[in-house]
Amino acid sequence: MARCPCSVFVRGLPLALACSIGLAREPAPIDPRLLAIPQADGRIDALIELRAKAPSTLLDPAAEPPARRRAWVQALQATAAAAQAALVAWLEAHGVEHQPFWIANAVRVRADRATLEAIAARDEVASVQADFPVTARLPGPAAAAATGARGLEWGIERVRAPAAWAAGIRGAGVVVGGADTGYQWDHPALRAAYRGWNGTTVVHDHNWHDGVASAIGGAPGPCGVASPVPCDDHGHGTHTMGTMVGDDGGTNQIGVAPDAHWVACRNMDQGNGRPSTYIACTQWFLAPTDLAGNDPDPDRAPDIVNNSWGCPPVEDCVPPDILRESVENAVAGGLFFVVAAGNSGPACQTIDAPPAIYATSFVVGGSNEAGRMYGGSSRGPVPGLAVVKPDLIAPAESVRSSVPGGGYTWMTGTSMAAPHVAGVAALMLSVNPGLRGHPDRIAAILRATAVPLTTTSQVCGGIASTTFPNPVQGFGEVDAWAAVRLADTVFADGFETAR
């Protein structure tokens, strides 16, 4: 019998997987880096991309966001289950370690090169990509700092969050998510906001996931793998979460939306990730599971996800389309996906690492306390991208926030800028819950209310520094109070036309 690729057809919900008979095709392409590994080197980490896709265009745009997300998750899961069934059975029969995904139709495997070549010959396979370890270029603690706690940190004041607080808008009723190096859930500035804590007992099911399923680049770090409790073996994740929601009830007012709740996923081991760990966390946010990976529940998804990580080309990260597909499918499911621009500036065209290079990501560059651009903030334009990135900028230099062990320190980078914007988005949803599940509307309001910096004349991509958006600062610096006031006036028909 002639071989043929398979396709999935969705009508509201997936109903059938059909395969029409055609001519035999050539084996799926294999990442050249995998073919360069000698056969004798043993098991190789790879991502298998399958051909079948669930089209988001068939989702009902008039449906309420929770119902639309449930339908979308069901479509993605059914598509993956049908398309992967034969491959997974083959992997199990041959004793191949594997991890299936549905947010992008893909399977992570650990196998020798001969097995990867056999997989590539299968009809349902579109490509075989490397899943190599990636060392993220994460900011660390500041070498020295001039002052201690100021009660209210400069970045919080700069984005005008206190004006929203004075109006009683502090993020209540909103859930933010963080994908990072992990988190100290019981840090004094974070414990009260953790969704798994009720003031007496803690439940990590559906509130925490460790996307590090196997060792990355050697032996596991202090958190191990698949940690059943929130753990941070670097400090970066705990710091970013503090900027979103942190408040110890005393002098450490470090978070933009202190009354919001948070959930989290670890996608890096001691700062080292890989495409599969990034995909694992993105999938979990769209439908959080219990600690065993069961009971995926899209109704428990966070409203906003902060992503202060990158998959940099300097670390030989050549991300497969699977990574882009996972981000696009998360946004199609209603998640507002906030992403750090990166720290490769000040040269133009330095936004070069996923997920900041994706059109569906809301990309944040950095500013400083003097009201200027943070020099290290990556700039656009992004080659091949029709839209301008970054979308806007936020405080990035010498940002003080929480770190593991119950303490606080300063860090610098766009990793610090992105959570300021995630926190502002939480304030917006708190004043107008109708924005929940509508990332385009949230983005439009943030862009419309940003305040352009007049302190830079840098030109990138031939766009004048006085034209907005531009590839240096996007639409300008985020303004929480202006965004909250505009969000409060937006009706259900949306605000997609703004700026």
UniProtKB/TrEMBL annotation:
It comes from the Bacteria. GO terms for biological process: proteolysis. Keywords: Hydrolase, Protease, Serine protease. Transmembrane segments: none annotated. It holds the Pfam family Peptidase_S8. SUPFAM superfamilies: Subtilisin-like (SSF52743). The active site is at D180, H236, S415. GO terms for molecular function: serine-type endopeptidase activity. Coiled coil: none annotated. InterPro entries: Peptidase_S8/S53_dom, Peptidase_S8/S53_dom_sf, Peptidase_S8/S53_subtilisin, Peptidase_S8_Ser-AS, Peptidase_S8_subtilisin-rel. PANTHER family: CELL WALL-ASSOCIATED PROTEASE, SUBTILISIN-RELATED. Belongs to the peptidase S8 family. This is Peptidase S8. It comes from Dokdonella koreensis DS-123. The lineage of its organism: Bacteria, Pseudomonadati, Pseudomonadota, Gammaproteobacteria, Lysobacterales.
